[in-house]
Design a protein that fits this description.
heterodimer, A: 63 residues, Alpha-Beta Plaits, two-stranded antiparallel ribbon, two-stranded antiparallel sheet, 19% strand, globular, B: 395 residues, alpha/beta, FAD/NAD(P)-binding domain, D-Amino Acid Oxidase, Chain A, domain 2, 3 domains, 7-stranded mixed beta sheet, 6-stranded mixed beta sheet, 20 strands
């Protein structure tokens, strides 16, 4: 099985504005916003990249 | 933290949640509303414009949260021809630019005064079910986990609703059914406090740029763009910044704050109740797919939801069947318009800039008595018959 791409959510506040757009769009419900911390479930995430598009400020990268 | 019990548990203290809590409490139920943030209404994730004709219906009294009362709206075509909608032909559809944080707090105060309990910094992190029936949530406050049990649980947790999915309702959206939004509150801008302004076309594919003017030279300037039309990271910000740069009256503005978020532009959910559970507001996709406005619909449905919740508690039957009163009630009040506006939006999303220009150009020439889709199309038909061919279904 090919290894998954790396998904990186910049949630230290340098880019992220904690708006929750990524949480709302995730089709697998695997991104979590807890005040000023965003995490995602590495095992569930399929790297569909929908959150990358939804993020209004470009805080999510995949590669 | 000990486990808690209540009659009606409302997850989320936005307008829809607070309305639900208030009306359930007024009808005599014990109500607990939980909010994951530490401050209700903040940060403001909203353009802050709303119509006003529905406020009396749900028992909201105009208060200090009103910043500006506008006379109308101006729609700008891609070449910036303007069509003005005013109170004369839009009726009470035009309305207020509000302090959204103050508005949300007022609704929470109303809920509290009606007897509802409120817990801040309390997130629902899971759902409790017994034999397929939702019986409450697993909650977390200040790092502590505990259960809140209730015969009726309400999901009012907004666009990023998790609880609806946990309850088993199909709330997933496709890319084309969502807009990603970004807004600035800006000062030192040339907005006109008589009008809310909307700019359409390729500058905001599948959405629009909005200007909601506020007192003292302040304005809420934002954009929504359809997710399926976004290509690069941070596209939404790029679109908004580009629009601002090209408008000198705003390019000279200073940004006071910045917030983003998502909006559904989908038809409403097919199912909003299950045993022990109802879903309301943005979480139930009650946002108007054409305007992106969710406050009025959330509040109207919230009142119905709260009343039905209290009735179910009193009757001792918090079942899917009993909750049909809510399902049918909110649909009777809102669904027709939601579908009509969804169809209109689907059409508008496909229009090239030239067609937007022609439509607005045709509207400038005529004096519409009443603003209806039919009247608009007839006006366009008389000047650009080729444009209306595509809209036969609406005529």
């Amino acid at each position: 099985m090919p290894s998954k791409k790396t998904l990186h959510i910049e949630s230290s506040g340098q880019l992220c504005i904690y708006c929750g757009a990524c949480v709302g769009v995730c089709p697998l419900n695997c991104i979590y916003l807890d005040e000023t911390r965003i995490t995602f479930d590495e095992k569930v995430c399929t790297r569909c990249e929908i959150c990358v598009r939804a993020c209004p400020v470009g805080a999510i990268e995949i590669g | 933290m000990q486990d808690l019990t209540t009659d009606v548990l409302v997850v989320g203290a936005g307008p829809a949640g607070a309305m639900t809590a208030k009306w359930a409490a007024k009808r005599g139920a014990r109500v607990l509303m939980i909010e994951k943030r530490q401050e209700i209404g903040s940060p403001v994730r909203c353009g802050e414009g709303m119509s006003k004709e529905w406020l009396t219906e749900v028992g909201i009294t105009p208060g200090r949260w009103i910043n500006v009362e506008v006379e109308g709206a101006r729609i700008y075509s891609p070449s910036e021809k303007v069509f003005e909608i005013n109170e004369k032909h839009a009726g009470n559809e035009v309305g207020y630019v509000v302090e959204r944080d103050g508005f949300d707090k007022q609704l929470a105060i109303d809920a509290g005064n009606a007897g509802a309990d409120v817990m801040l910094k309390t997130a629902a992190v899971g759902i409790l079910k017994e034999g397929g029936q939702v019986v409450g949530v697993k909650a977390k406050q200040f790092g502590e986990l505990f259960n809140i049990r209730a015969p009726v649980t309400i999901g009012a947790d907004g666009f990023e609703s998790q609880i609806g999915r946990w309850a088993g309702l199909p709330t997933n959206l496709m890319l084309r059914d969502m807009d990603s939004c970004l807004q600035y509150r800006m000062t030192n801008v040339d907005s006109d406090t008589r009008y809310c302004d909307f700019y359409l076309g390729k500058i905001a594919p599948g959405g629009y740029v909005w200007i909601f003017p506020k007192a003292d030279g302040l304005a809420n300037v934002g954009i929504g763009v359809q997710l399926s039309q976004l290509k690069n990271p941070a596209d939404v910000k790029t679109y908004l910044d580009r629009w601002i740069d090209r408008h000198p009256g705003y390019a000279k503005g200073k940004k006071i704050d910045m917030v983003g978020g998502g909006v559904s532009i989908a038809p409403p959910l097919k199912q909003t109740v299950t045993d022990g559970f109802m879903i309301v507001g943005d979480a139930a996709r009650m946002i108007d797919p054409l305007t992106g406005g969710g406050i009025a619909n959330g509040c109207i449905a919230g009142k119905i939801c709260g009343e039905v919740a209290a009735e179910a508690v009193e009757a001792g039957t918090p079942s899917k069947e009993f909750f049909q009163r809510y399902e049918k009630g909110w649909r009777a009040r809102l669904e027709e318009k939601l579908y009509r506006n969804w169809l209109a939006k689907e059409k508008l999303c496909t229009l090239p800039d030239e067609v937007f220009d022609k439509i607005v150009d045709a509207l400038q020439d005529v004096r519409l008595q009443k603003l209806t889709v039919q009247n608009i199309l007839r006006a366009v038909q008389s000047k650009y018959p080729e444009v209306t061919k595509e809209f036969d279904q609406f005529l």
